[in-house]
Amino acid sequence: MIRAAGCVLWRYAEGGGDVVEVAVVHRPKYDDWSWPKGKLKRGETALAGAVREVLEETGMHCEPGPPLPTARYLAAGRPKEVHYWAARATGGTFEPNREVDQLLWLPLEAARSRLTQRRDRELVDALAEVLAEG
């Protein structure tokens, strides 16, 4: 089992108001748009790994919130489990890197259209529910 974790990183859009934007990342190795995530290190908790991956891939610090649905699928024929959290961005600066060459802050519907995998698109609704609950 491949164990991984990540976050649906969100913020309120610049300019005020209550429009929520999420960070989607482009991974050149796979040429896809996804959430920041990655494999856990030995002995690392899923939440610690999720926060570490967000910082490594996006340069963003975050405040993790409620857990979101776990994604389970086959990756190169091996079962993979990715634990996700809603996480509010609290600062930082994106620098393109080997794993992630682009980061876009998008409104929820635009993010849903941009994300490559259906399992990632489903997390847009999960985040919207969490934010609506306050």
TrEMBL record:
Keywords: Hydrolase. It comes from the Bacteria. GO terms for molecular function: bis(5'-nucleosyl)-tetraphosphatase (asymmetrical) activity. CDD domains: NUDIX_Ap6A_hydrolase. The keyword Disulfide bond does not apply. The keyword Hydrolase applies. Pfam families: NUDIX. One of its GO terms (biological process) is ATP biosynthetic process. This is NUDIX hydrolase.
